[in-house]
Amino acid sequence: MRKVVVAGERQVAFVDVPVPEPRGAWVLVKVEASALCTEYKAYLTGRQLLNPGHEGAGEVVAMAQPGRVKIGDRVVVLPQLACGRCALCLAGDYIYCENELDYGMTFGTHDGSGTLGQYVLKPDWLLPLIPDDVSFEHATMAIDGIGASFGAFEAIDVGALDAVLVTGLGPVGLGAVANARFRNARVIGVEPMPWRRERAAEMGAEAVFAPDEPDLLDKIRVAAGGGVTCAVECSGRLPSQRLCIDAVGRRGRVAFVGEAADDLVIRVSPDLLRKGASLVGSWLYNIGDYPKVMQVIQQSPLIDLLVSHVLPMSQIQAGFELLASGQSAKVVVNPWE
Ligand SMILES: [Zn+2]
Ligand SMILES: [Zn+2]
User: Fold this and answer.
1) For residue 62, what are the β-bridge partners?
2) pLDDT higher for 225 or 139?
3) How far is the CA of 59 from the centre of ligand 1 (A)?
4) DSSP state, 211?
5) Regarding beta strands 278-281 and 74-77, do their DSSP bridges make them parallel or antiparallel, or are they unpaired?
6) Residue 33 Cα, ligand 2 centroid: separation in angstroms?
């Protein structure tokens, strides 16, 4: 089978390795579509990735024992290698599992552990079914395209009476726009790249501002008809994190989705206590919500705008460049082309 390797700065290689063998509850999936995500950052900096990819969809082709899926099932390949046994896993919050399975110890190789390859091995319970009328390309949105912000929207309970601020309209933030519109919430966006601002507007954001716009807070308040009730932060940037906290009104709710390395200062009295605000972090969603995530993908007319590019895996370099340029939403590759 062929897999992608991020070999160095702006360098991609394709490597042929043996197809991994299923064992125990680990099932072999033929990957039909894989969505690109943070791997492009390694591509830009030259950090080597030997088995990249965590957003896949495909068909079950082999297993070692009868289990939760059968040969021919169309499945989403959920990320991480949660244990399936701890209290968090049993509650569906597998994404926060602290007892991850050791792929290398189990198989003596890491080949087949990433979705940017033609086959992947996964424990069967992390392979939920795809409805017949949903394409593999759209199904990959069940991970970070729609899924990442879906968990945040559930955590802060966004509904039709809300006006949501979404900061950072990259692939995840544009997915947040789709989630907001699916819930009939009003949505205001903030994003530096013009292409992404336009795409957000096309997807139904009522107003989309650049982060350096003067009087940004006032403009957000006016655009939202008196202020936003909640915010979903998708950029990972400190000024945007602060903007989300400042933009929500009393009793506001803020969910942080964008990964961030820097320290944000929280002032307990003005930010939380006097405001009665809630700040939560969210990493993907409870697996029990998978049917609801898939319902968004199945029914939202915005998914075709969220998947901006579908490319052969042989052109993955162009896909990484698109993500780096800010002129794309989600980019999906087909490992067989
Ligand atoms: Zn991702
Ligand atoms: Zn666990």
Assistant:
1) 28
2) 139
3) 20
4) T
5) unpaired
6) 27
